Amino acid sequence: MIIARYASLCVEEIGKDRLADRVMEAMARVPRHQFVPIELQELAYADTPLPIGYEKTISQPFMVALMTDLLAVEEHDKVLEIGTGFGYQTAVLGELAEQVFSVEIIEELAREGERRLRATACNNVQLRIGDGSLGWQEHAPFDKIIMTAAPKRIPQRLIEQLKTGGRMVLPAGQEDEQKLVVVEKGDDRQVRTRELIEVRFSPLITSH
Ligand code: SAH
Fold first, then answer.
1. Probe ligand 1: pick from 33, 106, 117, max atoms within 8 Å of CB?
2. Candidate list 8, 59, 102, 207, residue with the active-site label
């Protein structure tokens, strides 16, 4: 499968030659066509990002698989996602975690995401409209946090809402030089970051 081949091509950058079976199985279970605009249905299973309006895109499947793998989601995890969009990444997380909380700043996209997640019976997902860089304090702390829009710097609030021993995966940096970053909050509360491959995500919208 094409995603597996991609993974083997970036061994050096990501430090592994294949993605976890659990992640690949979750990807196979989520019907991506239900998270794609009707006029692009025939491209739903191509390994490419697709437009969803508002200059946003549904991420390329390989990127969703890679970020999910790097997040190392476990069965009992509580996960926070920033940038629901149409909800595809959210649905993949829902397959792997116990609870998923997802925040989207554009109201119309949040409603569309909600409709699509309900239609695919993702019942362990809660959504909120708002600025995700502020996190979701009522449900913090989280085992894992994933951002699908790129901040210039890692939002401090999100680091605060990460459990010790927790992990966060995000694209970060200026628009034309973003890196995929893995953040780990050690048991000593020290924060360590690792930069992996170059990526291109839409920038995080900030409300403050
Ligand atoms: N997760 C989606 C990707 C959506 S693109 C998928 O699986 O396809 C990134 C999304 O982040 C967009 O919908 C955008 O509106 C949203 N976004 C941008 N800034 C945000 C912010 N500050 N808080 C929450 N969502 C944000």
1. 106
2. 59
Please tell me if the CB atom of residue 134 comes closer than 6 angstroms to any atom of ligand 1.
Answer: no
Q: Which ligand 1 atom sits nearest the alpha carbon of residue 58?
A: 8
Please provide the distance, in angstroms rounded to a whole number, between the alpha carbons at the two ends of the chain.
43
Give, in order, the Cα–Cα distances in Å from 136 to each of 81, 97, 130, 195.
10, 17, 9, 25
- Using alpha carbons only, what angle is made at residue 17 by residues 183 and 81, rounded to the nearest 5 degrees? 35
Domains for the chain: give ranges and CATH numbers. Answer: 2-199 (3.40.50.150)
Cβ of 104 closer than 6 Å to ligand 1, yes or no, is yes
* Angstrom distance (rounded) from CA 147 to CA 150: 7
59 in active site: yes
Task: Going residue by residue through the chain, which has 208 residues, state the pLDDT in tens, using 9 for 90 and above.
Answer: 566 666 666 666 777 778 999 999 999 999 999 999 999 999 999 999 999 999 999 999 999 999 999 999 999 999 999 999 999 999 999 999 999 999 999 999 999 999 999 999 899 999 999 999 999 999 999 999 999 999 999 999 999 999 999 999 999 999 889 999 999 999 888 999 999 999 999 999 987 6
